[in-house]
Amino acid sequence: MNPYPVSIFAWYGYNEPLRHRLRHIQDAGFDSIMLWWGDSLAFYEYDKDSLIRLLAAHDLAIENIHAPYLDASRIWSPDAAERQRTVAAYLEWLDDCARYGIPTLVMHICDRFDDIPSGALGYGLGCLETLVRAAERLGVRIAVENTSHLHLLQYLLDRIDSAALGLCYDSSHGRLYEETPFALLRQYPTRLYALHLSDNDGVEDRHWEIGKGLIDWDGFAAAFPAGLYRGRLSLEIIQDDAGEDEAHFLRRARQCIDALGAQLPAPPAADLDAR
């Protein structure tokens, strides 16, 4: 039996109105969603207030919001004005988290094609320190995703000792970028704040359902921080068969994540009691 609640990213490959997708997500047994946030792609159907009301009407919580990742590398820019503009955008999104009761903001810290010189490390560290202080004040958290350039993520987590900063572990990114499988889960067991679970072929970030690709899910379960993770098991998958019925796709996705959850160590007892 899966002891964890389950979540899914609001976009999973079907070109249907959000209201339609939310009904299918709820019917498949997911209790929350992850949302894209911060640009016109996020709010083309609803403004922020209307979006939050819609989710409440469907009794769906927000596990986290994902900040735009284009230009994520600007926190490492030598241009102070550019860094300030970037930080200002993230501060607004952190304010949104506090305003709407969203516990976690997920962010990237670089683009995989960008080369961040060692002389720029202090710039990114300063930006994240500013954001973490704001998150502490607002009572929310930042989860940095394991994209490429993992040394930058480790640099930040090792130098900013705050409960407001942790890791968003993307299983497909881990398969593509970690030299030692699941090393980050073992290195930062108490700072795992979010999950993006999907499978791939070891070549590209395919966003396949769990079990379709090459990821060693037994290894993932063995590395999972026993008794420490308090979040949901969250899917970031996209259908790759446009002819498949949406409800069927989501039911199968739910079955796959429940099967994975049954392999994992149980969450803290207090979390189980709360449910």
CATH H level: which superfamily? Divalent-metal-dependent TIM barrel enzymes
Shape: globular
Low-confidence stretches: none
As laid out across the biggest beta sheet, the strand order is 7-6-5-4-3-2-1-8
Characterize the largest beta sheet: strand count, sense, and whether it forms a barrel. 8 strands, parallel
Give an overview in words:
The chain is α/β, with parallel strands linked by helices and 275 residues long. The protein contains ten helices and eight strands. It has an eight-stranded parallel beta sheet. The chain is globular. The protein has helices at 18-27, 48-57, 80-100, 121-138, 150-159, 171-177, 183-187, 217-223, 246-261, 269-274, and strands at residues 6-9, 32-36, 61-66, 104-107, 141-145, 165-170, 192-196, 233-235. Helix 4 packs across helix 5. The mean pLDDT is 95. The chain has one domain (6-274): TIM Barrel (Alpha-Beta Barrel). Helices cover 40% and strands 14% of the residues.
